[in-house]
Write a structure and sequence with these properties.
Structural class: mainly alpha
Order of helices and strands: HHHHHHHHHHHHHH
Radius of gyration: 26 Å
Shape: globular
Largest sheet: none
Amino acid sequence: MDTQTPLANTDLTIIKRILIGIFIVLVAQVLFVAQDVVMPIILGVLIAQTLRPVVRFAEKRGIPSPLAAFLIIVALAGGLGFGAYSLSGPVSDLISSAPETGSKIKAKFAEYRDEIEAVKDASDQVQTLTQGTDTNEVQEVVVQQPALLSTAASKTFTSLTTFVVALILALFLLSTGTLFYEKIIGIMPLMSEKKRALRVIYDVERQVSRYLFTISLINAGLGAAIGVSLWLYGMPNPIMWGCIAAVLNFLPFIGAWGGALAVAATAMVVYPTLGTALIAPAIYLGLTTLEGNFLTPMIVGRRLELNIVAVFLTVTVWGWLWGLLGALMAVPILVIVKVLCDNFESMNAFGQFLSGRAAVEKPEEEAEAPVT
């Protein structure tokens, strides 16, 4: 019997891991299929967690939470709507002028045109040899793609619906105060479980809301700094670039480089020489690098520092599931998972994987006692 017990435990461990893998695959499938329902819910929870410090500040000043939540959500919706309306013109002009911008960029790199044409001619010759010379025997079937404007309009309507539902849900979560928490605690049968659940809930809320609110302020400040800097350098539509920088900064890795490339493409059209055009994206990258490597770690601290590999994988997976909006929500979702792992002993191993180097090497006496 003693020799069979380790084998049985090993089999149970293998079965448990297989079931966990199947559960993860099923959850991913549900998130992908039901994204029109799940995405607004998660976004609403994130918005509510971000704005909760503002609601509590208003409560301390004597404003009831329902009124404070209503005023904050209305102000946020009005600000987003006004900003989207104000930026719709410059963004539309930027998109419509993309072909002209591409032609002007090609003119900037005219000195490399001979090499590019040689490569293109070689590619055409290879394609001719592989397809044959008798054009009567081969017919190409071209599938007409949907128009770009209709696709963009459809995505815009879907995003607008998602934001409206998320804002309404955030309004309900903020206006009810602690009612949702009380319902969760009421499900627990024992007093010890109620206390533990209350401690975990408030710890998660405190850390996540502080992180999201702080990161939102930092990104807004970064957008303002980039907008002012590009305005001083003479770039057109600096407010648009500042807003784009603030939004893209929620997207690690890709956000800073994507914004810098967009600024570079526009700057090559605006400025006469390649050297002066590259200064604008250098300003963009310089400010984002300063924010990411110095400002954010100093303000947010090291406790919620995340593993760069985990961040990259999370952004990739959520971007694959939900597109750009999923990629923007990836890091806040990862922070919530990290805080949950820190509060449950059974999830500590996964939480250590999500942690950055500084958090992993933190002495035990500085860490908070996890909940079993």
